[in-house]
Amino acid sequence: MNILTLFVVIPVLTVIAILFSKDMKQTRLISAIGMGIQLILAGILVYSYLGMRKAGITDEFLFYFDALWFKTLNIHYTIGVDGISVAMIALTSIVVFAGVFASWTVETLHKEFFISLIVLASGVFGFFISLDLFTMFLFYEIAVIPMYLLIGIWGSGPKEYSAMKLTLMLMAGSALLFVAILGIYFYSAPAGGQLTFNLLEIAKNKIPIEMQRFLFPFAFIGFGILGALFPFHTWSPDGHASAPTAVSMLHAGVLMKLGGYGAFRVALYLLPEAAHEQAWIFLILTGISVVYGAFGAIAQKDLKYINAYSSVSHCGLVLFALLMLNQAAMNGAIIQMISHGLMTALFFALIGMIYGRTHTRIVSEMGGLMKIMPFLGVCWVIAGMASLGLPGLSGFVAEMTIFIGSFQHTDTFHRFMTILATTSIVVTAVYILRVVGALLLGPVKNDHFLELEDAKWYERLSTVTLILSIAAIGIAPLWLSDMIGFSLAPMVDKINSVTASIAGIF
Amino acid sequence: MTQGIPLNFFLIISTLMFFIGIFGFLTRRNLITMLMSIELILNAVNINFVVFNKYLYPQQLHGLFFSLIIIAVAAAEAAVAIAIIINIYRNFKSIDVDNVDEMKY
Amino acid sequence: MVFNDFLTMRHELILVCMILLVLIIDLCVSKANKTVMIPVAISLFLIHTIIGFLPAQSGVLFGGAYHSEPLTVLMKNILNIGVVIVLLQSAAWLQKEENREKISEFFMIMWATLTGMYFMISSGDFLMLYLGLELATIPMATLAAYVHHQTKSAEAGVKFILSSALSSGILLFGLSMIYGTCGSMYFDTIQTAYGNAPLQVLAFLFFFSGMAFKISLVPFHLWTADVYEGAPVNVTSYFSVISKGASAFILIIVLYTVFHSIAYLWKDVLYIISIITMVVGNLFALRQQNLKRFLAFSSIAQAGFLLLGLLGANEVGMTATIYFVLVYIFSNLGAFGVVSAIHAKTGKENISDYNGLYKTNPLLSLLMMLSMFSLAGIPPVAGFFGKFFLFTSAASAGYYWLVFIAVLNATISLYYYLMVVKAMFINKNDNPIPYFKSDAYTRVGLICAALGIFVIGFWSQIYEIITSLAFGVIK
Amino acid sequence: MVNYAYTLLIPLIPLAVFLFLGLTGHKYKPIVSGIIGTLGLGIGAILSYATAISYFFVNHVDGTKLESIKAFEIPWLHITENLTISLGSLIDPISVMMLVVITTVSLMVHIYSIGYMKGEKGYHRFFAFLSLFTFSMLGLVMATNIFQMYIFWELVGLSSYLLIGFYYTKPSAVAASKKAFIVTRFADLGFLIGILMLSFFTQTFDFQTLTNPNGPAIANNYGTGFMGLSLITWALLFIFMGGAGKSAMFPLHIWLPDAMEGPTPVSALIHAATMVVAGVYLVARLFPVYALTGGDALHVVAWVGGFSSLFAAVIACTQTDIKRVLAYSTMSQIGYMMLALGVSGYGGHDGLGFMAANFHLFTHAMFKALLFLGAGAVIHAVHSNEMGDMGGLRKYLPITHITFLIACLTIAGVPPFSGFWSKDEILVAAWHHDKVLFIIEFLVAGLTAFYMFRLYYNIFWNKDTHYHHTPHESPLVMTIPLMILAFGAVVSGFLPFHKMVTSDGMAIESHIDFAVAIPSVLIGLIGIAVATVMYRKPGSLPDKIAGTFKNFYKWAYHKFYMDEVYLFVTKKIIFRYISAPLAWFDRHVVDASMNGIANTVDATSKSVRGFQSGRIQQYGYVFVVGAILLVLLFIYIF
User: With 90 as the cut, is the pLDDT of residue A22 above it?
Assistant: First the structure.
């Protein structure tokens, strides 16, 4: 069987296995094993992918597999990966693996919890491997819907409200998406040709410009909502705040990446002319969410809210860079997706662990935790440093690639927006250090905290996994960025091959 | 013998009957009378069929058959309806339509 | 008429024989053990269903008044499957003390209406159509009023019979004009003769509103909620699934064949009606507490979606619609199955009663959740595919904004479907519905529904078969 | 051509030490980590001396150009086809000089800390951080391209943050570290933007390409871009902003005094000798670009440097916390260096300022480290930073006293101590370039002498404070570094810098310009004399003088209220008038509008329920009306 299909099959098998597990210990063990296999598989995938590239195979997509599903509508089960999706798959498997360990102590309805978690994961994997818009959309919704149960049942605070809000807003997003997909489908071939959902086929054909103008906003906003595009980001703070640890990890770490990835694969890649024309509108929006998210984070009091807003800022940067429509910036965008995925997952994991001990997430109520739980403290500092873009950690690589890349744009407007975006790194520093100072350093505020103990082995495992990956990217980014860049180049050329009637507003 | 009367007269009559029937259905409070006004509507339809058949397509009999069948069906309908109305009477101790609004919103 | 001609209308004849058989057997069974009728009837109908799948010959009878094609056979079979499940699910309720002596009536009346639907589907002229319609409608009223000692049931009955009488009156008025303008009742003749003279438009609209009443499209839907709520659960599920499905089939056939010449007209009608229907259905469903009523409005909204398929006015649309009806039958029966199972045991049918159901009856609530997701069109269950293809067909005709509105409505509908899920999984409850084991019939019925919900989507063959039949119907 | 690839080890060893101590340090006895750290640095120091000797003397023929050698380079990240970030080590005069400075001071500080930090908890952490800092600083100076420099620039910022906040349970320390990081981070934003612009125009990061007089940066004329300055000038100004931040130039200096919250050795290493001169190094590194593209940027550099030096010197005269006095004196001295760069030209004797700046950087590193370590010894003895708690310590701390005195004389520019030579060169350069700047620096020289000796007298003479436990001289491990540095402070003035570190690598001849030298020495002596009069013996004179310049004194004492201004901007403006409103906006406008949609739907559904009245006749009515409406619609509209 095609290795990619395994990425969907293994979660399903894990779920089935969980159904037969007797108690919590077995459940979590099974899911740990299942996701462990997934992680190894991802490793193999990356390795063999790089191997094949080294061997000089230059097809756009490797491990390509295609099976006809619905004949009349020409719907296929088409899968294949290029550097980008390989990177995303690796990210996903890491985060899910860490997530399983982060939720090691889920007591209530543990079976259901892990099942929905893994279903979500399978949805994400499916999304990243599929090259057929239909299956892509299918997996997209599979990934979104378990969120409702996960937040609604195991969440905290106003969980029903947040869960419902999150689900409905994302579904509204998929409504936009749906229209876009259908529109693309019916113009996927020259008149009389066989219509298709296959990305590669569609890319060969030029969709009429009027249609693109109509469809692009649908496609981009549709994915943008998931990517926390201002002003459609408000599901994210509430959702993250109410979600249980592992869910926030997966959601901010992986699910939000579906937005960026899809926006690139569908909106920009298939509708290039419109992208060129309308990019500036969304550049402004994303530019806003970059700065706005960062400033918003300063004023928050709840750890999860702080991180949610910083996610808005960082994911905004992803879309921002994508809209620059040049190789370097897009490359940066994808590295940023991975880097943000890892570090925000780490953040949420740590928040969960700290909350599990102190039973509060309000910054002002804590203090001096570094003394009490040094391991978690150090991890937190590392996560913070990653998110404020410190060299040697992944955040720096991503942000610098984005900034330099975007600044190479010949258009003054774009360069100006870039400078605007760069200011976010200072603001980020402000709120990160504020939290570090108030949370970890200083005297211990609450004496009850003194008898709290440091991280358990499973917590260490999950955090260390993430930290290692962050550091790995941060220290040796070359292989990753080249792997992505190689696959990116032809797509970017295709996007830029078209001549847009208007390029930006200047 | 009906040569003298033009088609439109019949149509006007039938249309009038139709709307009288509807008016009755919408205004009368007694379930039985409502049923009767429905019969009125059906008869209007019958007239239509018959006159169309007689005036426009005299060589065939579709209209006549149709009206016959309508009459038959109407009878069946009335039977069932009255049975149910009796049941209503048993439950509500009245056949005033205004009482029959237990379920709403 | 030779014997072969009878084979052509096999479905109808066999079903009529079944009805008579049940009648005869019922006479032989003593009052004490009437319940034996349940397995008998169900097995009889099972046989009928299986026979239905045997290769049938297509042909035309009564000078074109009756015609049978692979497509109509398929439609009838789909209905049969639905009915089987309905019967299985109603067993538990029929066994109750108060229904004992009316068991056979239940079967006979239901099957009579089914025969009516068969005739409607195969009708080749409006006379047959009208006959079938009434045959499908009038006995239904008695089903609605089945539990004669319940005021609600009686009310439902009278509401249904009166409003349906009105609607068929208006429909007939329309038919009379069609006759007046075309001089024939045969579909083929009318099809060629039909133009857009005001009288014909008027006639079409009257006819359409009559049909819309059956599928309960806004503004002809108002009876739906009350009747669904008043009627016994299983009758309601029969209403909402089988009768609605049948009327949808007939609407397809009539629109695509008889009125094909004025497609441009009825497309506009459907466009407007579908939007209104979706919106109103959702708006009302939002605040329902009684599950039957809730499902009634959700089914109205679903009908609104269904029109999008018709709008395609091509094979894709036809296929999508039939496929959607199939999916819808299973999803809705899943939901109704759970409702009836719980109602049969506890008599509860409010959403708030379902709080914390997952704790006590996990399987039931899982099935309920699946059906809800399927109705809301969430993958991987069948509903997603159904909706996707429907909207595709609408988009194929270029109705992107309509599709957008529809998908937004689907999002709204997701809200209230999730409210049910929330009740079962999230809400806390001090005294939830206790655990119970439902009898074999119900379980089989539920399993069938669940299977349907899962399989239909992924098994693309079904879709392909429908497609292959759908081609060639449109002339 | 000699292969200097081994210089790679100089930064890598501290890195290894950092990782080792950071991961396993807590397992051993504290002293072990101290020794490991020191050894590691020792090797580094030896290597860099070797490099220096071989580069300047062994492998350099007098009169030839000192080439800049790219000893080693690997690509780290490809960004565009032209722009590649690579890591490597660049060997040229200034980098080699910096290697020597950093390793020397760092080694001294390590040795010193073994004694100073004895008994502190987090001993291994301290040494780990020291090694991390050394690593980053070395990486910074050896950078082959501007982006590598930025990378290590950030790392330096981090390690400074960690070291300032070493006593992380002390709120003031936490605040100080945070302040230092954010202020410098803000400056780094300028640096980054500068890099972006520079790389956009020149399509390269590489120093050798950038500084090549025929390279794209200099040769291409980018014309006047914005507000009369060429875009390249803007880029350079932004880059200088970064430098100003690290080097605590006005107005980005506010973090430096607070940074004294860190342990004293840290102040000696980071905030006196090495990190704070990174800004100077940055400008020096890009000097050809600054000098050969109009020089507008250099004027800014010169004036910022000049003003900062004066500003800091004035404040230094009023402070009572000895470490803060030193901090301000550092700022003032760096102002000197900046000014020297600013007044310099490229090549030949115009490049005097460049040479002088690096010369002063070198000597300053020596004596300022010495001053801080000495102050550390004093604090170690009396457990206080306040002048008020000191006095008459010469009896108790002889070695500290002597070394401290040497340092003071050096910084006061008294011949033959090294400070005299370097400062003299700067004054000469200023004299040739711009008289106003010369006057400023001349005054500052006097002020410097005054406040240094004010400090000196207040610590070692003045009143005979009664200590409840008699202060005692620090252990050898602390005093030896003092002596070594004192030696350095004395002799480093005689190094032939004019042969070694020049703007274009060619040696220039230098001579004492008595017209400048004599007055500068005199004003230094005057400053010393005034200080002697005022502070040698306890007396009311200082208060009187302070009284006469009441307001001015008050302003100077409060550092001209810069902190308050910043607090106002950050707390009030940013936090209260930007973030909080944004957060509110997000909740009550953006989010509310999303909820609003849902609420409207809900409200509508409530309002339409009346339709379902439950009355058959109404149903019939709606039915008929609906049908008729359809008819009207389609017969009369379509």
Answer: no
Domain membership of residue A161 (yes or no) is yes
Domain count within chain B: 1
At CB < 8 Å, which residues of chain C contact A?
316, 319, 373, 378-380, 384, 388-389, 391-392, 395-396, 398, 400, 403-404, 407-408, 410-411, 414-415, 418, 421-422, 425-426, 460, 463-464, 467
Which has more confidence, D395 or B19?
B19
Residues B92 and B100: their CA atoms lie apart, in Å, by 8
* Over residues D121-141, mean pLDDT: 88
Which residue range forms the structural domain that includes residue B83?
31-92
- First-to-final CA distance of chain A: 52
DSSP A261-321: HHIIIIIIHH-HHHHHHHHHHHHHHHHHHHHHHHHHHHT--BHHHHHHHHHHHHHHHHHHH
Average pLDDT for chain B: 89
Mean pLDDT of chain A: 87
- Residue D71 dihedral angles phi and psi, to the nearest 5°: -70, -30
- Look at A426 and D196 and tell me if their CB atoms are within 8 Å: no
What pTM did the predictor assign?
Answer: 0.89
Whether A322 maps to a domain, the answer reads yes
- CB spacing of A404 vs D196 below 8 angstroms: yes
Residue B88 lies in a domain: yes
**Residue labelled with tokens 């399993």:** C447
Q: How far is CA D633 from the centre of its chain?
A: 79
CA distance D338 to D297: 12
pLDDT confidence of residue D594: 81
With respect to residue A503, please indicate whether it lies within any of the assigned structural domains. no
Contact C316 A73 (CB under 8 A): yes
C-alpha dist (Å) from residue A343 to A169, A253, A379, A472, D360:
25, 8, 10, 12, 44
Cα–Cα dist A103/A349, whole Å: 9
pLDDT digits (tens, 9 = 90+) for D465-519: 777 777 777 788 888 888 888 888 888 888 887 778 877 777 777 777 777 788 8
**Percent of chain A with pLDDT strictly greater than 70:** 98
Query: CB–CB of B98 and D615 under 8 A?
Result: yes
Q: C411, C462, C471: which to substitute to probe chain A, counting the most A Cβ within 10 Å? A: C411
Distances (CA, A) of C475 to C187, C192, C253, C283: 12, 11, 11, 38
Would you state the pLDDT for residue D470?
77
Contact criterion met (CB < 8 Å) for A370 and D168: yes
The total number of structural domains in chain A stands at 1
- The pLDDT tens digits for C73-121 are 999 999 999 999 999 999 988 888 888 888 899 999 999 999 999 999 9
| The pLDDT value given to residue B12 | 92
First to last CA, chain D: 92
Structural domain includes residue B37: yes
In a domain, A199, yes or no: yes
Query: What are the distances in angstroms from CA A358 to CA A361, A436, B39, C223, C228?
Result: 8, 16, 77, 57, 53
Contact between residue D518 and residue D443 where contact means Cβ atoms under 8 Å apart:
no
A176 shares contact with chain C (CB less than 8 Å)? yes
Residue with tokens 């809705």: C332
Separation between Cα atoms, residue D273 and residue D65, nearest integer Å: 28
Residue B66 lies in a domain: yes
Q: Examine residue B98 and state whether it is found in any structural domain, yes or no.
A: no
Q: Is the Cβ–Cβ distance between C161 and C138 less than 8 Å?
A: yes
pLDDT tens for C261-286 read 888 888 888 999 999 999 999 999 98
Token readout for D267 is 């102040």
Residue range(s) defining the domain that contains residue A402: 3-497
For C415-472, strand residue ranges (E) read none
Helix ranges, D351-434 (H): 352-382, 398-412, 418-433
pLDDT tens digits, one per residue of A156-199 = 888 888 899 889 888 989 999 999 999 999 888 887 788 889 88
